[in-house]
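In this supplementary section we document a worked example of the pipeline. Step one takes a protein sequence of length 339 as its only input; no multiple sequence alignment statistics are reported here. Step two produces a three-dimensional model, which step three serialises into structure tokens for compact storage. The input and output of this example are shown verbatim.
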Amino acid sequence: MAPEHDKIRQATAWSDLPMTLPVSVLIPAYNGAKYIAETLDAILSQTYRPAEVIVLDDGSTDDTRTVVGRFGQRVSYHFTPNGGICRARNMAASLAVSAYIAFCDQDDLWRKDKLEQQMGLHERHPEVQYSFTNFSHVIDGVWAQRTKLDDAPADFFRDSLPAGSAPFIYEHSLYDPLLSFQPVWPSTIAIARQRFREMNGFREEFGKNPSEDFEFTLRCVKQGPIGIVREPVAGIRRHPLNYSGNIDANTRGQIEILEYVLEHHDMGESTRQLVLEQIAVRKVERSYGAFREGEFDRFISLLANVPPRYLDSKTRVKLMISRLPAPLARSARKFLLKS
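The serialised model returned by step three reads:
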């Protein structure tokens, strides 16, 4: 086991060494005609060229095929009946031929040096078989200056990070920290194809879950080493068509996945308590919307098994109101929301 001070390592400089590690870029698509051309342009403009780019069309009914077809032989296009994004990602991975695979959602963007930085880390450190990059949100074509890792809790990484902005290697597990703060997006990850196969890829039963990648990410970060690119070389686009933009649906999906990992992932008691805590926190968050919409039965149901310590005084008042006869509950709700 490495000494404690070696738990975070600066990655070896990559700019002065040749790079030969091939990577396949995989894009699951569903009715992505509006944005996928810009995504493909960003991928094909990388300073470190991918060995192949695969679009797995998950049953689109729009012009996705036509748009992708304009890129000719530079992009390999495959169509399958709709089965969910997890299935599409797994199918794309089964077609890949490179030692590494990198995912990009159909509407996200990459800075030109994204693969250069990320694959440079893997090239110099073959023991690192999984990595992710920092990212910024992109709204109306403008990249936000604030990045995802800027919002990380102070104790997210257990040790002080190396100075500068270069990629680094993290030897700890990130499983527990990711339960409450999620800095990993599918469009930021690269993983050894063999490791992806050994992990059996994404759980396809979560293909319609808006937080479908959460369970896969938890498995990936359960143990180090993990490669991390600190610069925001990926852009996660925010727009009206984002399925992931529905906060209530996302929270519901996270609860489903946390309940799954509680039953199926191997974990110690301290981690188990963290998972239970995060389930409770998310149920309370969902309850706010239920009460606001006057869905009293759903509000009560969400909080039924939440320990009292997670309920503040206002939430307790809402519970009392929700248990009143319906006419009284509706009147009291309106009064509370106006106050």
